[in-house]
Amino acid sequence: MLRRLGPGFWLSAGWIGLVLLAALLADVLPLARYDETLAGPPQAGPSLAHPFGTDGLGRDVLSRVTYGARVSLGVGVGAVLLGLAVGAPLGLLAGYRRKAADAVIMAVNDVAQAFPALVFALAVVAFAGANLRNVIIVLGVLGVPSWVRLVRGATLSHASREFVLAARVLGARDLRILWREVVPNVAVPASSYAFVGMAVVIVAEGSLAFLGLSVQAPTPTWGGLINEGRTLMETAPHVVLAPSVVMFLTVLSFNLVGDRLRALTDVREIGLEPVRQAVAAVPAPAAPHAVRDCLLQAEDVRTHFVTPRGLVKAVDGVSFTLERGRTLAVVGESGSGKSMLIRSILGLLPGTAVRGGSVYLSGDDLTARSPAEMRAVLGPRLGTVFQDPMTALNPVRTIGAQVSEPLRVHLRMGRRRAREEAARLLASVGIPDPARTLRRYPHQLSGGMRQRVTIAMALACGPDVLFADEPTTALDVTIQDQVLRLLHRLREERHMAVVLVSHDLSVVARWADEVIVMYAGRVVERGPAAEVFARPRMPYTEALLQAAPRLDDPPHHRLRVIPGRPPDLAAPPPGCAFAPRCPYARERCAAEAPPLVDDGRAYACWYPLTEEAQSIGR
Ligand SMILES: Nc1ncnc2c1ncn2[C@@H]1O[C@H](COP(=O)(O)OP(=O)(O)OP(=O)(O)O)[C@@H](O)[C@H]1O
To answer: What sign has the CA pseudo-torsion 410, 413, 414, 415?
Structure first.
């Protein structure tokens, strides 16, 4: 990794180190005092005794440049720290909380950024005097808006990543999520910006000194030296050249180091929906329903989005029940509402979503719980495994820290016990050498191993229901089967229920007991998995089955694609949403939406498939 930094980085870092060291050790170095007039002619050119020559008053320029570095670097460090201390918390708040906090902070920030820097500097110096402390305050305050922008941007991009959602799913509090998940990631761009900020401040201090608004004579500053030397440009150019070149090289070095660090740590952003705790508002009164004696019951779950194009019913009245020791598969094409259904159940929806219906966990209505009350359920009772284990794990924290987290938060285990338990969990999901894996980072593991880690995290507190949202989609085919087999084994061992979400029927066919098929946010078929797969009643289920490869397909069997595209949820067709793509559709299908009828098998179709039709279709 260090080799990737290149020679430019090392040269720059070396130069910064040299200047820093010289500034720190100026008093003990064999240098003349910066204000001492030496014997000999003034404006003397460079010599062995005075490598940078002497100035108009016969003072050693090297000494003055070295002492000047103290002011320039001191102001740089002070102003950057001040900007960071004020700007970073504001940026974190704006990026994480968004809404009102974001609007207010960014509005004030924009006004601050628009305020003329020089007027501000002049005002402060006029009232408070030109000294080191005031220059640091001026430049630190002027840097705050840039820090706010940078930290807000980094927070925004990380707060919507899956590992933050994963922490939420485990019931972590906002402050903890910010500190453990967001801050380490924001620290990466912030540290590289600190170097660039140093360069900006050094130049700014130089400009202020040039205008006489910085630390006053006789204390030398680089800007002040350039100002003094400019009158000697023709007779003794070395007086102005020496501080200019040192300042130029230092600014260039800080920029280069900052830039190389940024390039090295640049993690490609992955765009994801912003996910926040839903502000649940029930759009319409649900029909009365009985609370059943089962582990998980979803009743008329609805997730709607009010968009500029109209109301999008991403989930529209989904109901099901699930018992311990059983697996429910939720299948459907991309965009059919599977993920939104799971997020509705977990109470983790984008802020723009409106949720309706009820979800009962052992008879306890989860939708009646506040976000704070939901935290006690997320993790201990409801576990979640996400599609892409790379984005579900925090790249800058070790596996050990991440698997221990739910154990420490929910089970209040000490660091040591949590690590021992984490190792045991890793072993239980089939990870060889758990002790070593605990010390590793996500990128050091294969995709299959990473998914095992996220499963271990989801299982840490012994949940009653495990939600697996497309857990194998990001893995290659040979690993897919291993992960599903593992989920099945864990379900048996822990006697929990599993909700398995997939767009691929062939993946879930073997492992599911019950299945619900979703299309355009609604359940179009529901029933025992074996029956639904063997004898689908709804043409959409049949089409999905025909589009999925099967082991008993004859060689060179052509898979049938489903013609057309899923409907635009902002403007769904008036009748059955699948009608425009259905080979069996008749007039009534386009005009009237079929209800979900339940005659032992539930399906939403005016003309359900009979066994003869199925054998012709296949
Ligand atoms: N923030 C949002 N604003 C408006 N509509 C949204 C938003 N998020 C999701 N949707 C709508 O919800 C629908 C269902 O999305 P969801 O992610 O649940 O689908 P999915 O079946 O899980 O698909 P995939 O397998 O691709 O994740 C999408 O088609 C989209 O129209």
So the answer is: negative
Pairing mode, strands 514-519 and 327-331: parallel
Q: What digits encode the pLDDT tens for the residues 555-605?
A: 666 667 777 888 888 888 889 999 999 999 899 999 999 999 887 789 999
Separation of CA 273 and ligand 1 centre (Å): 9
Residue written as token pair 């720059």: 12
- Our answer on whether the CB atom of 580 is closer than 6 Å to any ligand 1 atom is no
Residues 137, 205: contact at Cβ < 8 Å? Answer: no
User: In whole angstroms, what is the distance from residue 331 CA to residue 545 CA?
Assistant: 11
pLDDT of 52 reads 85
Ligand 1 and 305: CB distance under 6 A: yes
> What was the ipTM of the complex prediction?
0.95
Task: Report how far ligand 1's centroid is from the alpha carbon of 335 (Å).
Answer: 5
User: Does the beta carbon of 437 sit less than 6 angstroms from any atom of ligand 1?
Assistant: no
Q: How far is the CA of 35 from the centre of ligand 1 (A)?
A: 71
Residue 326: what residue type? Answer: R
Which candidate, 445, 449, 417, places its Cα nearest to that of 430?
449
317: number of Cβ within 10 Å = 18
Q: Is the CB of 503 under 6 A from ligand 1?
A: yes
Q: Please write the tens of the pLDDT for every residue from 466-494.
A: 999 888 877 777 777 888 888 899 999 98
Six token digits for residue 3: 């080799």
Three-class SS string for 386-448?
CCCHHHHCCCCCCHHHHHHHHHHHHCCCCHHHHHHHHHHHHHHCCCCCHHHHHCCCHHHCCHH
* Residue of 333, 334, 352, 388 to mutate, ligand 1, most atoms within 8 A of C-beta: 334
